[in-house]
Amino acid sequence: MLNNNKNLRILFFLSVVFFVACKTAQETTNTNQQLQPKNVSLNGKLFSSLFQQRAAEYRALCYQAYYAARNSINHYKPTTNKPLAIITDIDETILDNSPYAVHQAYAGKEYDLQSWYEWTSKSAADTMPGAGSFLQFCKNNNIQIFYITNRDEVERNATLNNLKKFNLPNTDDAHLILKQTTSSKEARRNNVLENYEVILYMGDNLADFSSLFDKKSETQRANNVDLVSSEFGKKFIVLPNANYGDWESALYHHRYNYTQFQKDSIMKSVLKGY
Asked: Which CATH class is domain 39-270?
């Protein structure tokens, strides 16, 4: 009888341990499921956004770019009597939009215009490391800043509000030049050049600098970089952006109707390994 009671106690104890273990495992599984968004895009946007948000190396690259821009201005010798100016892109050059990429990746999506409008309407983007102090340096040296961006006209007020949040100079309608009929920035740059001597151009995308890079193939883009290589770090200041850009659309021959599966296949087909 004593042995039976002892066996029953052992069986009861093992049952409790098993129940607790199962419950803990289930809770852990539920927690992990909550932490892991469904349908997260596998195209690398999360990884590149992580680098942009957390890597000190990314921060250093931004400071390096702005230091090169400052150094270029300090050594610049005007060639006309026109007032001096710089031309800069906004997204991933002045403002950091990586939270948008993360939001879209968690939803299993990439860029689309409506969700982009929703993001920019918040005026919530932070500045790139070093952007504010560099632009203030320009202002202190009587250099006008023109923001040439491919944001749309409907984003004007929200964009100005976002820039003004950080007290960035020349944040007004005259200096914010949005996309109207074409994504090419060449005509807009030339309009600024009519009245100003432009010291340098800043951007995260090669098309921010010259029409040499408008809708070009991978090979053409690489060849044209070699053609004007002496301008980088002096006339052309490039900010890092591994999240998006013409470098990516050039892979897809500037076609924008590929599915994510098709894009993944193209990316895998061009990557080098061993």
From this structure: alpha beta
Nearest to 103 by CA among 40, 55, 169: 40
pLDDT value at position 44? Answer: 85
Q: Kindly report the length of the chain.
A: 274
Determine the Cα–Cα distance for residues 73 and 88; give it in Å rounded to an integer. Answer: 14
Residues 238/210, Cβ–Cβ less than 8 Å: no
pLDDT means per 10 residues, the chain with 274 residues, are 53 49 49 46 80 98 98 98 98 98 93 97 98 98 98 98 98 98 97 98 98 96 98 98 94 86 88 94
For the chain, domain boundaries: 39-270
Task: With beta carbons less than 8 A apart as the criterion, state whether 252 and 87 touch.
Answer: no
Q: What pLDDT does 30 receive? A: 47
Q: Quote the pLDDT of residue 23.
A: 53
